[in-house]
Amino acid sequence: MKIVQGDEVEWKRGLQHRGGTFHYRHLLEGKAGDPGNFHLGIGQQDGDFVSPRHRHNFDQFRFQLEGTSNFDRNGKMEAGTLGFFPEGAAYGPQSSEGRSVTAVLQFGGASGNGYLSPREVAAGTEELKKFGTFEAGVFRRNDDSEGRRNSDAYQAIWEHVHAARMDYPKPRYRDPIMLDPQNFEWRPLAAMPGVSEKRLGTFTECQCSAALLKLERGASYRAGGRSVYLVLSGTGVAHDAPYRPLTALHLEEGETVELVARDQTELLRLVLPDLVGLARGSAHVEAAE
């Protein structure tokens, strides 16, 4: 088990390949180069942040903590909204209406294309600046450099890091899926008195999923593996470590940990996909223009 106290993590500048001001707190990550690599962070966007309509070759969950994120034709995410943004599906353009804070889990999905870590993205960004410029989420290559003139910024970085063309997977869902958890009902969990759950959805054949959990004061919850957890409210103990709002946990397959609530607690549970036996880069189509 890994546990991180999110409120102790410093804010860092990120997404320089997009436009405007963005800072993030790095909470948890997987193994770079592995198809199941992931990153859990909290992103803060100021009112000048912009990102063009684009798509990825990985999946992501977003949970809006504060403010509003605007995805144009795909709709807005208000505080408390959960979004599943599937690989291959275009979304945006994205902007923020003032200060916006979002928990974001990005991870390699069913296509087997994996996920670049923030460190890999940052390094690729700096290397590509030798050959062109990043403008509002687009990489524009210098006339004297070989390669595509204009590319989505992340696509250009991915291709530079892998020295290969990015072929986007066929989208399993045409658009992002945005959920309002307030419209779901709490259901008690069997054999765990005082613990209830809102199951928000399971996605793709690899079964990544999202749920909210509520622990009444004094209740115990046995957290399971292949998941990341983010404490949204409340305090308590996870094994021998304290938890509080923005505490994040990662459990591998087969790991468990007991959480005991000192006061009423709400958690976001995000289950990572089961990629056992999945061939890397198993699904491809032509890259976007």
The total count of helices amounts to 2
Beta-strand residue percentage: 35-45%
User: How many strands, which pairing sense, and closed or not: the largest β-sheet?
Assistant: 7 strands, antiparallel
Radius of gyration: 19 Å
CATH architecture of the domain at 180-271: Sandwich
Identify the overall geometry. Answer: globular
For the biggest β-sheet, the strand order reads 1-23-20-25-18-17-16
CATH H-level name of the domain at 180-271... which superfamily? Answer: Jelly Rolls
Which CATH class of the domain at 180-271?
Mainly Beta
Which blocks of ≥5 consecutive residues have pLDDT under 50? Answer: 282-289
Helix content: under 10%
What number is the mean pLDDT?
Answer: 90
The total strand number stands at: 25
Helix/strand/pairing category: mainly beta
Provide the succession of SSEs. Answer: EEEEEEEEEEEHEEEHEEEEEEEEEEE
N-to-C span: 42 Å
* CATH fold call of the domain at 180-271: Jelly Rolls
